[in-house]
Specification:
Layout (H helix, E strand, L loop, with lengths): L1 H24 L7 H16 L2 H7 L6 E6 L5 H17 L2 E6 L4 H13 L4 E5 L6 H11 L4 E5 L4 E2 L2 E2 L6 E5 L1 H16 L3 E6 L7 H15 L3 E7 L6 H12 L9 E4 L2 H12 L14 E4 L3 H9 L4 E6 L2 H17 L6 E2 L4 E2 L3 E4 L2 E4 L40
Parallel strand pairs: 1-2, 1-3, 3-4, 4-7, 7-15, 8-9, 8-10, 10-11, 11-12
Antiparallel strand pairs: 5-6, 12-16, 13-14
Helix pairs in contact: 4-12, 7-8, 9-10
Length: 401
């Protein structure tokens, strides 16, 4: 009986093995070498679609970010916002934006709300120099996983400039925004050109102080001569107009070659004051030329109408600026700080990024020129795709194909 049971066990074992062998080696429905290869490829593709592999291909997909601007909405800031939106859409990132009407408390409240709501990253613009450092330091300490990029925001306290670890600061290269305008004046009048400067004085805000660096360098080198300063009492066109109109009453046209405004809102007031004064608007002798930093649709119109008065604007491409800032935030979210690129120094792995300025010349504007299409007449520093930070998952031409 024992032998019989052993024999039956052997038979059963063999009978179970035979179908397995037939299934592996038969040409009638089993896997051929080609089929085995195809199965391997499918398996490989399946592995590529795992969450880990997908994250490697696009580490920011599904993240949530916001652009928070201190100032009211304007054409150039809409251009910034739209390019942020386009980049986020291309990367599968949720994007929101907030304009805070020049109210620093509203700017802080918006940032605090976004941080507590679980946003992964914030692109913050035009923070107050006096309060931004202390406020954002608290935010980064309370929300250590929140990634932050700032634009036109200096960190200043205790009498000196500060840094916030992990926070990248982005600026227009403010010095060059002025020097490209000074170069235009020097080209027309030669070195030693006599200029009036329009700003609010030192320590009013960091962009003006940074622009003053370019002016001071040119003056120290003897390239320009400051013959006067105009300081609006408020950040408004009307204030700039009133102060400039009064100033011109005590100036002779032959004693000055041109005017440079550190802000285009001031420039609009200066333009109006010149246009309204027959001794400077071209009716009695040559018109007094002026130029300004920044640009908006009013500036373009004025340059088109009176290119002999408003001769140039120093600016950067605000569409490109938005993309540059958002790309930096994407790299922070991915932990790839080493890829953050500064076009001014041409170095990567930096925590300060500056975008070089371009002079938009009134003489080169076309009838159809607008703030949105200035790239058609501007130089190579305007809208330069090589200014963009990039990664394998975020190539430079991602939204420029």
């Amino acid at each position: 009986m024992r032998k019989f049971r052993k024999l039956m066990s052997t038979v059963l074992a063999v009978s179970m093995v035979i179908p397995m062998l037939v299934g592996c080696g038969s040409s009638g429905g089993g896997a051929t070498p080609a089929a085995t290869t195809a199965q391997a490829e499918v398996s490989s593709e399946a592995q590529a679609e795992t969450p880990e592999a997908a994250a490697a291909q696009n580490p920011v997909a599904g993240k949530k970010v916001a652009y928070v601007m201190l100032l009211p909405s304007a054409t150039i800031f809409q251009m910034w916002k739209d390019s942020c939106q386009d980049l986020c859409d291309s990367l599968g990132v949720d994007f929101d934006f907030f304009f805070c009407d020049g109210d620093f408390n509203k700017w802080q409240d918006t940032i605090r709300t976004c941080a507590s709501a679980g946003y992964d990253g914030l692109l913050l613009s035009h923070g107050n120099q006096d309060g931004s450092y202390v406020f954002l330091k608290e935010i980064t300490e309370q929300y250590p996983d929140l990634k932050i990029v700032t634009f036109d925001t200096q960190f200043y306290t205790d009498g000196q400039y500060q840094k916030l670890p992990g926070v990248t600061q982005m600026f227009q290269q403010d010095k060059s925004l002025v020097t490209v305008l000074l170069d235009q004046m020097i080209e027309k009048y030669g070195e030693g050109v006599r200029l009036i400067k329009v700003w609010r004085g030192p320590n009013f805000n960091s962009p003006f102080d940074r622009r003053e660096v370019g002016w001071a360098e040119y003056e120290a080198a003897g390239k320009i001569k400051t013959v006067g300063e105009i300081q609006p009492l408020q950040d408004s066109v009307d204030s700039a107009n009133t102060v400039t109109a009064a100033y011109l009453q005590g100036v002779k046209r032959e004693d000055v070659d041109g005017v440079i405004a550190y802000y285009d809102m001031y420039g609009q007031g200066v333009y109006n004051a010149i246009a309204e004064n027959d001794n400077f608007n071209g009716k009695n002798g040559e018109a007094l030329p002026m130029a300004s930093v920044d640009i908006d649709p009013v500036d373009v119109t004025n340059m088109q109408m009176r290119s002999d008065i408003w001769t140039a604007a120093g600016t950067t491409d605000w569409t490109m600026n938005g993309e540059i800032g958002m790309r930096i935030l994407m790299l922070e979210l991915a932990g790839e700080y080493d890829k953050i690129y500064d076009p001014a120094s041409k170095e990567a792995g930096v925590d300060v990024v500056e975008v070089p300025g371009t002079a938009i010349k009134a003489s080169e504007l076309k009838a159809e020129s607008t703030v949105e299409n200035l790239g058609e007449i501007a130089g190579e520093t305007y809208g330069n795709i090589d200014y963009l930070s990039e990664a394998e998952w975020m190539p430079k031409d991602l939204i420029h194909k």
